[in-house]
Specification:
Layout lengths: L1 H42 L1
Protein name: Secreted protein
Organism: marine sediment metagenome
Length: 44
């Protein structure tokens, strides 16, 4: 029983970790897109 609980906890943790990583990546993409747009705006 304890083993099952530990396993599910581990799964949950890795899932949350992946989610937070994805959120970080999305944030980075958004920032770089903003910078790209700024650069494009300056060129005009």
């Amino acid at each position: 029983m304890k083993r099952l609980l530990a396993n599910s906890l581990l799964l949950l943790c890795s899932f949350v970790f992946k989610l937070s990583l994805q959120a970080d990546n999305n944030e980075q993409v958004r920032k770089s897109n903003k910078q790209l747009n700024l650069l494009k705006g300056r060129r005009k």
